Amino acid sequence: MRTPSPPRLRHANAKRFFRNGGEPRIRLQSCRFRIAKGRPLLEDLMMTMRFLVPLLITWALLGASLAERNSKDIKAFRVSKTGGNKELLLRLFEHIRSQEASKNSGRLARFRMELHVRQRVSSTTYLVDGEGEPYWFVAKKPLNKVDGDWLVCLAKMTDEVKSYTTVLKAKKTVRVIKEVDESELNLPPPTPPLTKEKFVEELKAGKTWTVTLVDNCKTCGGSGSLKSVSGRRPCGSCSGGRAYVTYSVRW
User: Fold this and answer.
1) pTM above 0.70, yes or no
2) Domains and CATH numbers, the chain
Protein backbone atom coordinates (compact mmCIF):
# COMPACT_ATOMS: atom_id res chain seq x y z
CA MET A 1 0.00 0.00 0.00
CA ARG A 2 1.27 3.44 -0.87
CA THR A 3 2.19 5.58 2.10
CA PRO A 4 0.39 8.95 1.93
CA SER A 5 2.70 11.92 1.66
CA PRO A 6 2.53 14.61 4.33
CA PRO A 7 0.39 17.64 3.52
CA ARG A 8 2.06 20.43 1.63
CA LEU A 9 3.14 23.29 3.88
CA ARG A 10 2.08 26.39 2.04
CA HIS A 11 2.53 28.90 4.82
CA ALA A 12 6.05 30.26 5.19
CA ASN A 13 5.80 30.25 8.97
CA ALA A 14 4.82 26.56 8.97
CA LYS A 15 7.82 25.68 6.81
CA ARG A 16 10.13 27.71 9.00
CA PHE A 17 8.69 25.97 12.08
CA PHE A 18 9.90 22.56 10.91
CA ARG A 19 13.15 23.94 9.46
CA ASN A 20 14.06 25.29 12.89
CA GLY A 21 13.71 21.89 14.48
CA GLY A 22 10.10 22.14 15.55
CA GLU A 23 10.77 24.79 18.17
CA PRO A 24 7.79 27.05 18.85
CA ARG A 25 7.75 30.64 17.69
CA ILE A 26 6.41 33.32 20.05
CA ARG A 27 4.47 36.08 18.32
CA LEU A 28 3.10 39.10 20.20
CA GLN A 29 0.53 40.51 17.81
CA SER A 30 0.28 43.85 19.64
CA CYS A 31 3.97 44.67 19.19
CA ARG A 32 4.80 42.36 16.26
CA PHE A 33 7.93 41.08 18.04
CA ARG A 34 9.15 37.70 16.76
CA ILE A 35 11.55 35.63 18.80
CA ALA A 36 12.84 32.67 16.82
CA LYS A 37 15.84 30.41 16.75
CA GLY A 38 18.76 31.92 14.91
CA ARG A 39 17.20 35.40 14.63
CA PRO A 40 18.73 38.17 16.81
CA LEU A 41 16.45 40.32 18.94
CA LEU A 42 17.99 43.49 17.48
CA GLU A 43 16.60 42.61 14.06
CA ASP A 44 13.14 42.17 15.57
CA LEU A 45 13.38 45.57 17.25
CA MET A 46 14.46 47.23 14.00
CA MET A 47 11.48 45.75 12.16
CA THR A 48 9.15 47.01 14.90
CA MET A 49 10.63 50.51 14.77
CA ARG A 50 10.16 50.60 10.98
CA PHE A 51 6.45 50.10 11.66
CA LEU A 52 6.06 52.39 14.68
CA VAL A 53 8.05 55.45 13.55
CA PRO A 54 5.77 56.37 10.62
CA LEU A 55 2.74 55.88 12.88
CA LEU A 56 4.17 58.17 15.57
CA ILE A 57 4.99 60.82 12.97
CA THR A 58 1.41 60.65 11.65
CA TRP A 59 0.00 61.09 15.18
CA ALA A 60 2.28 64.07 15.81
CA LEU A 61 1.23 65.79 12.58
CA LEU A 62 -2.44 65.14 13.32
CA GLY A 63 -2.10 66.58 16.83
CA ALA A 64 -0.35 69.66 15.47
CA SER A 65 -3.11 70.25 12.92
CA LEU A 66 -5.81 69.90 15.58
CA ALA A 67 -3.98 72.30 17.89
CA GLU A 68 -3.66 74.81 15.05
CA ARG A 69 -7.37 74.44 14.27
CA ASN A 70 -8.32 74.97 17.93
CA SER A 71 -6.11 78.05 18.13
CA LYS A 72 -7.90 79.51 15.10
CA ASP A 73 -11.27 78.91 16.80
CA ILE A 74 -10.26 81.18 19.71
CA LYS A 75 -10.47 84.88 18.88
CA ALA A 76 -8.14 87.30 20.60
CA PHE A 77 -9.92 90.28 22.14
CA ARG A 78 -7.55 93.09 23.17
CA VAL A 79 -9.20 95.50 25.56
CA SER A 80 -6.63 98.23 24.82
CA LYS A 81 -7.70 98.16 21.16
CA THR A 82 -11.43 97.84 21.66
CA GLY A 83 -12.31 100.89 19.63
CA GLY A 84 -16.05 101.20 19.17
CA ASN A 85 -16.93 97.64 20.19
CA LYS A 86 -17.99 98.64 23.68
CA GLU A 87 -21.04 96.37 23.71
CA LEU A 88 -18.94 93.22 23.25
CA LEU A 89 -16.51 94.41 25.92
CA LEU A 90 -19.33 94.81 28.43
CA ARG A 91 -20.66 91.31 27.65
CA LEU A 92 -17.22 89.80 28.14
CA PHE A 93 -16.72 91.72 31.38
CA GLU A 94 -20.04 90.45 32.82
CA HIS A 95 -19.09 86.84 32.01
CA ILE A 96 -15.66 87.31 33.57
CA ARG A 97 -17.17 88.85 36.69
CA SER A 98 -19.47 85.82 36.99
CA GLN A 99 -16.45 83.52 36.66
CA GLU A 100 -14.68 85.27 39.50
CA ALA A 101 -17.81 85.25 41.69
CA SER A 102 -18.21 81.49 41.22
CA LYS A 103 -14.81 80.96 42.88
CA ASN A 104 -16.26 82.23 46.17
CA SER A 105 -19.03 79.64 46.10
CA GLY A 106 -16.39 76.94 45.71
CA ARG A 107 -14.97 77.85 49.12
CA LEU A 108 -18.05 76.38 50.81
CA ALA A 109 -18.66 73.45 48.45
CA ARG A 110 -17.00 70.82 50.65
CA PHE A 111 -19.07 71.87 53.67
CA ARG A 112 -22.41 71.96 51.86
CA MET A 113 -24.39 68.79 52.58
CA GLU A 114 -27.63 67.34 51.24
CA LEU A 115 -29.16 65.02 53.84
CA HIS A 116 -32.34 62.98 53.50
CA VAL A 117 -34.50 62.96 56.64
CA ARG A 118 -35.13 59.39 57.71
CA GLN A 119 -36.80 60.27 61.01
CA ARG A 120 -37.64 63.52 62.78
CA VAL A 121 -36.62 63.29 66.45
CA SER A 122 -37.23 66.93 67.33
CA SER A 123 -37.27 70.30 65.54
CA THR A 124 -33.46 70.46 65.81
CA THR A 125 -32.56 66.76 65.79
CA TYR A 126 -32.99 64.35 62.89
CA LEU A 127 -31.90 60.90 61.88
CA VAL A 128 -30.69 61.37 58.30
CA ASP A 129 -29.15 59.49 55.40
CA GLY A 130 -25.95 60.84 53.91
CA GLU A 131 -24.04 58.99 51.17
CA GLY A 132 -25.94 55.80 51.97
CA GLU A 133 -25.20 55.79 55.71
CA PRO A 134 -27.29 56.96 58.70
CA TYR A 135 -26.18 59.96 60.75
CA TRP A 136 -27.47 61.96 63.69
CA PHE A 137 -27.99 65.55 62.56
CA VAL A 138 -28.15 68.51 64.95
CA ALA A 139 -29.45 71.83 63.58
CA LYS A 140 -28.50 75.24 64.96
CA LYS A 141 -32.14 76.40 65.05
CA PRO A 142 -35.56 74.73 64.79
CA LEU A 143 -36.41 73.43 61.31
CA ASN A 144 -39.82 72.59 59.94
CA LYS A 145 -38.80 69.25 58.40
CA VAL A 146 -40.61 65.92 58.36
CA ASP A 147 -39.73 62.40 57.34
CA GLY A 148 -38.77 62.25 53.67
CA ASP A 149 -37.69 65.90 53.40
CA TRP A 150 -34.22 67.07 52.41
CA LEU A 151 -31.82 69.18 54.47
CA VAL A 152 -29.40 71.39 52.52
CA CYS A 153 -27.02 73.36 54.73
CA LEU A 154 -23.42 73.93 55.81
CA ALA A 155 -22.43 71.15 58.17
CA LYS A 156 -19.41 69.31 59.56
CA MET A 157 -18.83 65.72 60.56
CA THR A 158 -17.83 65.51 64.24
CA ASP A 159 -16.05 62.86 66.29
CA GLU A 160 -19.14 62.44 68.45
CA VAL A 161 -21.37 59.37 68.25
CA LYS A 162 -25.01 58.91 69.19
CA SER A 163 -26.75 55.69 70.25
CA TYR A 164 -30.44 55.12 69.72
CA THR A 165 -32.97 52.30 69.71
CA THR A 166 -34.86 51.39 66.55
CA VAL A 167 -38.52 50.47 66.32
CA LEU A 168 -37.47 46.81 66.43
CA LYS A 169 -35.61 47.44 69.75
CA ALA A 170 -32.21 47.18 68.09
CA LYS A 171 -29.31 49.30 69.36
CA LYS A 172 -27.63 51.53 66.77
CA THR A 173 -24.66 53.88 67.04
CA VAL A 174 -24.07 56.56 64.41
CA ARG A 175 -21.80 59.56 63.95
CA VAL A 176 -23.03 63.07 64.60
CA ILE A 177 -23.25 65.84 61.99
CA LYS A 178 -23.70 69.40 63.19
CA GLU A 179 -24.90 72.43 61.25
CA VAL A 180 -22.37 75.28 61.20
CA ASP A 181 -22.19 78.92 60.17
CA GLU A 182 -19.67 80.19 57.66
CA SER A 183 -17.91 82.12 60.42
CA GLU A 184 -17.14 78.83 62.22
CA LEU A 185 -15.22 77.33 59.30
CA ASN A 186 -12.13 79.56 59.54
CA LEU A 187 -12.03 80.03 55.78
CA PRO A 188 -10.06 82.82 54.06
CA PRO A 189 -12.20 85.87 53.31
CA PRO A 190 -14.08 85.79 50.01
CA THR A 191 -12.64 87.57 47.01
CA PRO A 192 -14.30 90.98 46.59
CA PRO A 193 -16.45 91.45 43.46
CA LEU A 194 -14.50 92.25 40.31
CA THR A 195 -14.77 95.92 39.44
CA LYS A 196 -13.96 97.55 36.12
CA GLU A 197 -10.91 99.20 37.65
CA LYS A 198 -9.62 95.90 39.03
CA PHE A 199 -10.40 94.23 35.69
CA VAL A 200 -8.21 96.71 33.79
CA GLU A 201 -5.50 96.53 36.43
CA GLU A 202 -5.20 92.74 36.20
CA LEU A 203 -5.25 92.85 32.40
CA LYS A 204 -2.37 95.30 32.37
CA ALA A 205 -0.48 92.98 34.73
CA GLY A 206 -0.68 90.23 32.09
CA LYS A 207 -3.72 88.22 33.17
CA THR A 208 -5.99 86.71 30.49
CA TRP A 209 -9.48 85.23 30.63
CA THR A 210 -11.16 82.79 28.25
CA VAL A 211 -14.86 83.43 27.65
CA THR A 212 -17.35 81.63 25.40
CA LEU A 213 -20.35 83.61 24.18
CA VAL A 214 -23.48 82.09 22.63
CA ASP A 215 -25.48 83.94 19.97
CA ASN A 216 -27.96 83.21 17.25
CA CYS A 217 -26.21 82.07 14.09
CA LYS A 218 -25.87 84.92 11.61
CA THR A 219 -25.94 82.53 8.65
CA CYS A 220 -29.31 80.91 9.36
CA GLY A 221 -30.75 83.53 11.73
CA GLY A 222 -30.99 81.03 14.58
CA SER A 223 -33.23 78.52 12.78
CA GLY A 224 -30.51 75.92 12.37
CA SER A 225 -31.37 75.26 8.72
CA LEU A 226 -31.09 76.87 5.29
CA LYS A 227 -33.17 76.78 2.16
CA SER A 228 -32.05 74.40 -0.55
CA VAL A 229 -33.37 72.93 -3.81
CA SER A 230 -34.82 69.93 -1.96
CA GLY A 231 -36.35 72.08 0.79
CA ARG A 232 -34.29 72.67 3.94
CA ARG A 233 -30.81 71.57 4.87
CA PRO A 234 -28.89 71.83 8.19
CA CYS A 235 -26.81 74.94 8.63
CA GLY A 236 -23.12 74.12 8.55
CA SER A 237 -22.08 77.23 10.48
CA CYS A 238 -23.79 76.48 13.81
CA SER A 239 -25.28 73.86 16.09
CA GLY A 240 -29.06 74.04 16.23
CA GLY A 241 -29.08 77.71 15.37
CA ARG A 242 -26.66 78.64 18.15
CA ALA A 243 -23.17 79.92 17.38
CA TYR A 244 -20.42 79.56 20.00
CA VAL A 245 -17.52 82.00 19.90
CA THR A 246 -14.60 81.73 22.32
CA TYR A 247 -12.53 84.82 23.12
CA SER A 248 -9.16 85.15 24.78
CA VAL A 249 -9.48 88.47 26.63
CA ARG A 250 -6.20 90.26 27.24
CA TRP A 251 -4.86 93.78 27.41
Assistant:
1) no
2) 73-105+193-250 (no CATH), 109-185 (2.40.50)
